[in-house]
Structure formats: structure tokens, C-alpha cells
Structure prediction request, 507 residues.
Amino acid sequence: MAEGDHRPPRRRTLVLMEPPFCFWDQSMDRLREGEETIPGIGILVLAALARQKGYAVHVIDAKRAGTTNEDAARRIIALAPDYVGLSCTTISITNGSRVAAAIKAALPGCTTIVGGAHVSAIPERTLAEFAAFDYGIAGEGEHSLFELLARLEDGRDVRDVPGLAFRDSERAGRVRANPRAAYVEDLDGLPMPAWDLVPNFPHAFAPSMFNYRRSPVGTLITQRGCPFSCTFCDRSTSGRRGRWHSVEYVVAMMRQMAEYGVKHILFYDDLFTVNKVRVRQLCEAILDHGLDFTWSCNSHPNLLDADTMALMRRAGCWQIAYGIESGSQRVLNHVKHEVKLDKLLVTLRMTRAAGLKIKGLMMCAHPTETVESLEETNRFLRTAPLDLMQLTKFTPYPGTPSYPTIHEHGTFVENWESMNAMNFVFIPTGLDEATLERYFHRMYRTFYTRPDVLVGLAKVVLEEPRFLARLGGYARPYVGEAVRRMWRLARTSPAARPRPSVEGRAA
Prediction:
């Protein structure tokens, strides 16, 4: 600044975004009509912190159905930011690099920083693979990101920033990753998420179907860390030790949701019920303050009792999602050993008796999976007291306990763009993809042709009319694929048609 020039320094601009994720088939993109379409809580907290620190901050919602990399890059470039932070999972890391490359081409002076689960799990590999990222932040970013930005602003050395992955110019550009910053202990010291930076919140928010009772819907995260040892879960970002917002802070966040007109809250904690005493205290506070919400949460099958569930119901809880994973005890002993099917069934019946909806989270193609265990899971789904079931395909993500030893249990093709839990990138020893696909679709048919399940879903649709239009968009790709398969079969001569296996006849 020239002598006598007293203009304040220009506010630096920071853009935060989650990039579009890669889908397994572009023709199936409309399946995202049934999935989340809002930025994660993590980047909204970072946005609120950035605003406190004087940055001009923008949040780009690029996960919406139909958003392309070009759309996302164009919107960011139009803001001419100094810094761009991209929060990426494994399924979005490649698209994140493409967006970053487009930004660097248009704005060579812009600094691109990648954070999120993928870089937290494998920081060196991430930066080595994607040249468009200038830096990576592993672990929780509230300290590391702003320490990095402050040093860049001041022209100071960044090489010892905690949690930083970077290319060391003094070592021929070799990627290095520093020990990560300490976990945030005082979660109440963080600002509330910057929901005001999300256009048309909450009315533009379309959460996963059948996960909510009323709309508009908002999401909250009230704790970090998970103590359980599921082999398929990545804890590389927030670790295993639980840390919680106080009940008073959660009530304040819920009041903020009420001011936005939110009617249903999705608590997106990995395990909302891991601290049962706190759950009870929060439910009592909700009742004492007269907060008028319905809400949903995730739980482990071992954590709740009948009295706590009854209190949750009185406080507005509508649905609990349980990580069940498999109907085979042998498989559970390998991937989620704390869960016992007999005790799980007691928990499910108790939940239903409390008047709560139940969502079962299932996977197939686990390590050690066999035809027999797949049959066990299919039989479980015929009678399990569930209202909703979500089935995904086991995926050994970087950072999960299963990842380092996965090749001992089968074949694994580590294509990050395909690792969306809807591709069989891992095939257990003794099985093949065709068999797994048959069982995957069979399990869905087994559950969603049950009369009790269909009646329950019909009631939910009648109570929330928004579901009907979304269900049409969500189902259309499946219907289209079924028609295409029938057409291909009709054009094949009877002699050339594949003969069904024993498993196929049983479907």
C-alpha cells in the first residue's frame, strides 16, 4: 500500500464446496432425487468460522442432481476467490480434482485445498494422484485450515501446519503429510452452521426419502467420534473418542432451525444414542422448552432400552436407523462383532413397541460372505420387524479397518470413481459378481414385496405428499433399466437365452 493510502486491505474470498459425486452410470443420475442435496454440516461450520475471521465466504451446493463439474467450476470462477476448499469423500475426490483443475486454469493465483474423509485417510496418495490440489487437510479442519490460510496471507512457511499434506519444494516436490491437529474438544466453542449461506434453506433441501415425517427438514450433528469397531466404517477424520455439544447448545441449534421454519430434524451423528444419559437429558430439554419437531437419528442395536425409547418418542422422535449389516451371525462376528442377532431382534421389537419407525441399514458382499450367509440375510429380511431397509454393496474405503487386509478375503478393484456402495468393487472369495447381483436384487424384492412393508410405506406417502413426486423420479431409472433388459431378452432367441441357475429359480 502506498504511503498515505489508508484504504482497508481487500477482504480475501474463500469458497467452500462439496463436489458432485461420481455415479456408476450417468443414465442413473436421477437416483440422486432420492438422496441428500445439501452441503454437509462440516463445511457450514467452517464457513461460519471463516466469516468470524473476516473472510468473504461462499458455499456452493454442487451435490444436487444434475450438477456437473463444469457447472460447479463456473460458479466458483465467477466469484474470483483467493482460496477454494473442497470437502471430498472417496466417491467425489476425482470430480473434486476436475473442478479444481478448471479453477486453476481460469484463476492461476487461486489456492485449492482438499479436505474430508478421503484425504484424511490417505493424504500422501491423494496429493500425489491429483496435481490440481495445492494442499490437503487431514482430520478435523477447524484449526488446520485457518492456520494454513493465515500463513499464506503472511507469506510464512506452511510446512509445519498440523494436518497439512503438501509438496515439499526442498525435497523435489515429494508429498509430505504432517501429524494432524488435536481434535476439537470444546464443540460448544464452534459457531453454529452458516445455514444462511445455503440458498433457499430449508425449502430447497430434499433429504433421503422416507427419512422424515414432516417438511421442511433440517440436519444437525451434535457429537463427533465413534467408539465401535465396525470394519467398514472410516474414523480417520474424527476418531473414536466421543465428544459432544452440550444439551444447551443443541437446544439453541434447534431454536435456530425453528426460526427457519424447519419441522423435522435429521440428527446425522454417526451414533446419536452413544451417550444414553445425554439423550435422555436432551429429550427432557426438548419437552421442557416446548420444541415442536419430529426427528430421526441413528443408533447401534446395543444402546437403548424401552424407557429411553418411550422418552424419545414423547420428545418427537419418529424414526431410528440401526446398522444391522447382515442377517448372518457368522458374518457379523467378523464385521460388527458387538451385534448379536437375538439381542438385535429384541431391540427392534422394543423400538416398534415404543411407536417408532425403524430403518435397517444392510450390506451384502462382506468379507467372508458366502451363498449361505446371503441366504441367511434374505431369510432375515422376510420377517425382521423393519419399516424401511437400505441395502448397499460392501465397499472397503480407505481409512476403514477392512481396507489394509481386504485382499486376504477376495478381489478388490480400487477405482475411486466406482466406490459408491452401489458397485461390487469387492468380490468375496468363492463368489462372483453375477451371484452377488442376483442376491442384491432378491433381498430388495424380498423386503419390499412384504404386505406389511408396502402398507406402511403407503401410509407414509399419504402423510407426506412430497414423496410421491420424488418417488417417481427415483424409480424411473430402475423401470427404464427393466424395460431395456426385457427388450434385450425378447430379441434373443429362446435357445440362446441364459438358463437360470438354482438361485435364479428361487428368486
Notes: Residues 408 and 465 are 48 Å apart (CA to CA). The longest helix spans residues 466-490. The two ends are 75 Å apart (CA to CA). Residues 1-8, 24-34, 493-507 have pLDDT under 50 and may be disordered.
